[in-house]
Design brief:
Elements (H helix, E strand, L loop, with lengths): L5 H20 L15 E4 L2 E4 L4 E7 L2 E6 L5 H10 L7 E3 L2 E5 L5 H38 L5 H34 L2
Antiparallel strand pairs: 1-2, 3-4, 4-6, 5-6
Helix pairs in contact: 1-3, 1-4, 3-4
Length: about 180
Amino acid sequence: MPQYDKADIERRMTGAVESLKSDLGGLRTGRANTALLDPVVCEVYGAMMPLSQVATVSAPEPRMLSVQVWDKTNVSAVEKGITKANLGLNPMTDGQTVRLPMPDLTEERRKELAKLAGTYAENAKIAIRNVRRDGMETLKADEKKKEISEDERKRMEDEVQKLTDKFVADADEAAAKKEQEILTQ
């Protein structure tokens, strides 16, 4: 029984690109984006919890995020979590609502963020190449065990390479789009 599974390889490569898109969503542009607060964790009820499990995040204005904390005893923990996340945001509390005005990005900060987007893309491409390597090794092992022929192995290796090229291009495109968004705000 051959070990090679094209669907698994495609699923893992898709996962790498989706993870990249999620990481890029958390990068700050000039506009308020609720995904910016995805990495924030707060210490509530004696445990570290994602912000999304203790509050509702919304963007009522283009340059303002609003965090509606469900339990008023957690407001200071949410504030601390946002501050600790080092996102360059200054929380202002109003009852159970924490408002986060979006400061203007300096040119230097924009360049740093664009560079970070490139780093995220490079990490995603490394993950995609690792999946390709796994697929190629599996195909060679299958051929060695005489489960597939040399011609089949070569055909499937081309298939894996085409998938790799497609997903690397997707990663590059997502990063380029985000870099453009960051630099033109």
